[in-house]
Amino acid sequence: MVVKHGRFGKFLGCSGYPKCKNIKGLASSTGVKCPECQKGEIVGKRSRYGKTFYACNQYPDCKFALWSKPTGETCPDCGSLIVYGAKETLRCSNKECKYKNNKSQ
């Protein structure tokens, strides 16, 4: 198996390609446990348009996904994940919750 580059990012592919077509995806791990299924882990993936998103690695069973990178902390107001926001801020991943915090504090 060797690391190759494709249109969705890096992946592991068999070195004897025409005879062996075995591949495995390489996802960047965040170390954050999935809040929905409690079994999987949030990993970084690439969409078909090249934008990075973060989703549970137990995909067919759990469809939890985020566009922003999670920090691993939970929101003190609603209990959802805290994600990195724009301009050095942290915000809640729940759209109804208005929690925001500066990283510098």
Describe this structure in words.
The protein is mainly beta. The chain has a domain at 70-105. Helix content is 0%, strand content 46%. The chain has no helices and 11 strands. It has strands at 2-6, 9-13, 23-25, 28-33, 41-46, 52-56, 65-66, 70-74, 81-84, 89-92, 100-102. The strands form 3 sheets. It has a 4-stranded antiparallel beta sheet with strand order 4-5-6-7, with no helix packed on it. A 4-stranded antiparallel beta sheet has the order 8-9-10-11, with no helix packed on it. A hairpin with a 2-residue loop joins strand 1 (2-6) and strand 2 (9-13). The termini are far apart. The model has no long low-confidence stretch (mean pLDDT 84).
Note the topology.
Layout: E1 2-6, E2 9-13, E3 23-25, E4 28-33, E5 41-46, E6 52-56, E7 65-66, E8 70-74, E9 81-84, E10 89-92, E11 100-102
Antiparallel strand pairs: 1-2, 2-3, 4-5, 5-6, 6-7, 8-9, 9-10, 10-11
The largest beta-sheet arranges its strands as 4-5-6-7
Instruction: Estimate the global geometry from the Cα principal axes.
Output: elongated
| Uncertain stretches of 5 or more adjacent residues | none
Mean pLDDT: 84
Q: How many strands in all?
A: 11
- What percent of the residues sit in helical stretches (DSSP H or I)? under 10%
Beta strand % = over 45%
- Distance from N terminus to C terminus (CA atoms, Å) equals 45 Å
Report on the biggest sheet.
4 strands, antiparallel
H-E order: EEEEEEEEEEE
